[in-house]
Each structure stands twice: as C-alpha cells, then as structure tokens.
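Subject: Protein entry, chain in single-letter code together with its fold tokens

Category: Structural biology, sequence-to-fold work with a learned token vocabulary.

Notation: Tokens come from a learned vocabulary of local backbone shapes, not from coordinates.

Start of record: The labelled sequence and token lines come straight after this line.
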Amino acid sequence: MFIYKDYINKKICQKLIDVYENDNNKILRKDNITHMNQVYLSSTNSSLINYNSALNKILEKYVKKYLYINKGQQRWTIHRETKIQKYEPGESYFGWHSESTGYKGNNNRILVFSTFLNTIKKGGETEFFYQKEKVKPEQGKTILFPAFWTHAHKGNIAKEAKYIITGWYTYVH
C-alpha cells in the first residue's frame, strides 16, 4: 500500500477544531460531489506551528520508506494553503476524485496529507478505490498518499460531525 498512516497528538487536533470553530471566514462548498464547510489557512499561519512540526516528523518517516521521492525529482514543499474541513452529519466528499488532475492550480501536487481531528464511531471513512481500503477516522490518524489517479478516493457519510485538516505537498518551480 502507498497509504502511510501515523498519528498527531490529540491536543493539536483539538486546537485545530477550535481554530475552525472560531474562524468567521468559513466557506461553504456544495455541489454534486461534495457538501462541507472549510477554512483556508496559510501554511505559515501561527495556528499551524505545532501541527506542521508533527506533520514533518510523519513526512520524514514516509520519505525513509519511499526514498525515490527525493531522488531525481524537482524540489517540493508544503503547499501555501491548508484546509480545515467540517462535515455535518450526512455530508461528505461523495465523488471519487484525485488531487492532481493536470488542471492549472492542482497540477503541481504530488502528495496529499489528511489528519482526522476527531474520532467517528460509524462511517466517515476515507475510501480508496484501487486499494480497496477504507481508512477509519480516528483522532490524530494522519494519512499520506500520492496525489494521482492511482489513489482515487472519496469520503463516506457519517452520522456525526467530522473534522479533518488536509493539504498537499507540491513541486516548487
């Protein structure tokens, strides 16, 4: 599997939920494949210092496992924006999708990170099409995976609110 799982401290997760709840600039996204609210933060936002530090430790483990990511590749770094998303009961990112589709704006994405900020008892998994895997939302569980069509995924519906923080590592040109 090319889905790497590791954990972020629960205190960091709760702080990020608080950041989301206290933000007045939530953006509703509702179309045929998704329904959620999200907050965009600059990857250098002071609210993300502890999260980014923990995420970097997870990334180091990923890079040790998949050495080629740093050999013969263009330089890459965390994308300039990170999103905290909240799905109310019954909401989800319903449609199968990948994060790098070749369109301007997402064609530089190489890796996806996603951390579940709360635990969901039933449903709410991130499901991967080709890998036939459902990743259960557990507070702090972080997944790293390639941004490409090989890792098409979707969110499954939960009966309780679900919080995640997600973003990308992108090539630097």
